[in-house]
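Bit of a strange request maybe. I'm writing a small parser for structure token strings and I need a real example to test against, not something I typed by hand. Could someone generate the tokens for this chain?
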Amino acid sequence: MTATRLFTTLRMLALLAALLGGGCSYSPVIQHGPLAGANGVNVVLFANKSYRAGVEAVLAREMIDEFAFRTGGKVLPADRAELELSGVVLSYNSVPVSYSAADAIREYNAILAVQATLRDQKSQRVLWKGDVTEQQVYPVNANIALQQDAEEAAIEKISRRISERIWQKLGERF
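Reply from user aminoacidic:
Good idea to test on real output. This should exercise your parser:
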């Protein structure tokens, strides 16, 4: 290796070390809404008033993931969190939306409606309350197991979007 190549290689390594060693890490900043300044939030399993069993568990998992991601892990147990997010699954419906030429159902539309409430745990004062509805189209399958998988995947997507929308609504200026 020539001296020029060696010098260039060492300079590149030094630059790389400076970039990696001096890099900054991402940390979420909550600037608006009731979450600003709070130490964390406890996400409570929503009550389920729909006919679809288990939809509240999927929603809770997505809600915890969304809030943990957006707050940098400030989803805490009830005894440590200042805020509590709870709610109700108001309804779940799955309705046909497209048909084949032979008048057989080709796709369903899953619709999930929830009401969420954010409270201060000490005072029980409601800081935010709102209704959110989302929907997702999923295909019909002759195999019942694949049909159920498609519906469950649709519920998961809906729950993720509901979680994102609730997070966004909580961050809006009051």
